[in-house]
Give the backbone structure.
Amino acid sequence: MAPVTSLTASVHQRLADALSAALPEAGAADPLLRRSDRADFQANGILALAKKLKGNPRELATQVVSGITAPELIKDIEVSGPGFLNITVTDEAITRNLAARAADGERLGVPYAENRGTTVIDYAQPNVAKEMHVGHLRSAVIGDALRHMLDFTGEKTIGRHHIGDWGTQFGMLIQYLIENPGRLAPADEVDGEQAMSNLNRVYKASRAVFDADEEFKERARKRVVALQSGDKETLDLWQRFVDESKVYFFSVFEKLDMEVRDEEIVGESAYNDMMAETARLLEESGVAVRSEGALVVFFDDIKGKDDKPVPLIVQKADGGFGYAASDLSAIRNRVVDLHSTTLLYVVDVRQSLHFKMVFEAARRMGWLNDEVTAHNMGYGTVLGADGKPFKTREGETVRLEDLLDEAVQRAAEVVREKARDLTEEEIQERAFQVGIGAVKYADLSTSANRDYKFDLDQMVSLNGDTSVYLQYAYARIQSILRKAGEVRPAAHPELALDAAERALGLHLDAFGATVTEAAGEYAPHKLAAYLYQLASLYTSFYDKCPVLKADTPAQVENRLFLCDITARTLHQGMALLGIRTPERL
C-alpha cells in the first residue's frame, strides 16, 4: 500500500499551489505551516513573501484564500492579523486519513525514507573480562532504538559491537591462567552470572599477583607480545576469556530486552591484522607524519592548553598501535567490505574529540566523503539524585545487572498494587516489561547529548512523562476493546467530531512525519515526546467522550476506531523505542 499523505502535507500543497497561482513571479513559495491554538494550522510565510515583493500581506493573503477550493479538506480558512492564514480541516478529512492509515497494517501509512542506504551502527560496547556498569546503559539503549527506527524507514542496518577484547590486560590474565589452570570453566558450562563471577575472580587474582610480583609482571608483558604475534596457546586462552565474556554479555542484553547477534560482536581484535596497513597508508599519503618516533595526524584547529597541536596517535614510538589505528581500520572495513553509506557511532560524549579527529583523518584519506558519512551520537552521563555521576553508596560504579533488577522489582510493586485479575506469574512478566521499559524510556525521552538523573521512583510512576503512563494508556484501550464484545471499530467519516476527538485525530495523523523526522535526525527523544503527547490526548478524549456509551451505534464504532488506531500507534511507536506494551496491566 502507498504511504498516506498527511493532512499537514495536503494543506501545505494546496496553499503552495494557491500562492503560485496568485503570484507566478514568486516561484515555489513556502507557506510555512505550523500548529496553532486558534486553528489546526497557521500559514505565516505570506508575511515574508509580501515583504520580498513589496506588497500588502493582508491583500496577498486574501488573494490566496480566494484561490483555494478544497471543501473535502479545508473546512475554514481566515485571514488574521497582518496576514496570517488560520486553517481548519474538515472532520471528514481527519477520519478518512486515519482510516487509510489503519488499512496499512503495522506501517500505519508511514513512508519509507527517500534516500535509503546502509548504516553501520556502533553501539553497546562492553569490555571482555569486565562487568557491565551503568556507563554501558545509554550506548545500548540509544543504539538499539535508532536501529529499530532506521529499519522501519527502510534503511539497511548492520550492528557493530566494538568490544574491548585486545590490549595489555590480556597478557596479565592469560599468564595467570597458564600458571593457574582450571580457574576458568568452559563457556558452555556456565550461565551469565557464573561467567562474570569466574571472570571477576580471575581478574582480581591476576591483578593482585601483577601488582605484587615484578617477575610475573615481566612474564605478563611478554605474553602480550605472544598474543599480538599470534601464538596459538595464547590465542586459545584469550578466546576462552572472550567466549565466557560473551555468555555474560548475552545475559545482560537479555535483561535489557534487546537482541545482540553474535556475528555483530566485532571487537578491537578483529582489526589487528589491518592496523599495520592502515598506518602505512596514512604515512604514505602524508596524512600521518612521524613526530618524536610516533606516527600521528595533526589538525590546525585542535590545540591543547599550551596552544600546541593535539595529535591523533596512530602508532606509538615503541611500535604499539593506539585506538586511532583500530578505529580507522574499522572505518576502512565498514566502508570497503560492508559497503556502508553511513557510519553511526553511539559513544560517550567525552570521546567526541577523539572521533572528530578520527573522522577528519578518514576524510583526508578519502574513506569518508560526500557519499559516505560518519556521525558521532555522543551521549551524556547518567546522574544520581545528587546530580553527580551515578554511584553506589560506597562510591563504586553501579553494576548494570543490579540496576535492571531493582527496576523490575520496583515495577512489580506498582503492577501488583494495580493488578486485579493477574496471576503472580503474569505480574512478574509485566514487571519485567514495565521495569525495563521504564529504564529505556527515561533514557530515550532525554536528548542523547544531555545528562539525565536516574530516579527509579519517577521512572515507574503512573503519572507524568514515563513509559508506565504510556503502557497503561495502551492497556486501558485494550480493556475497552475487549468490553466492546462483538461491536467492532469502524471509521465513520460522515460524523462530526468532538474537539477532543479532533485533537487526538490530528496528532495520530502526524505519526509518519514524526517517525521520519526522528529517524532522520537520530533523535529518539522526539518520538518519545510524540508518544507521551498521544497518551495525554487519549486520556483527555477518554475523559470527555464516552466510547461504549456514545449516543449512536455509529458513534460507538467511530470512537472504538479512534481507540484502536491510538493503541496501534502507541504499540508501534513504543516498539521502535524497544519497549513492550502489555495487553493487560
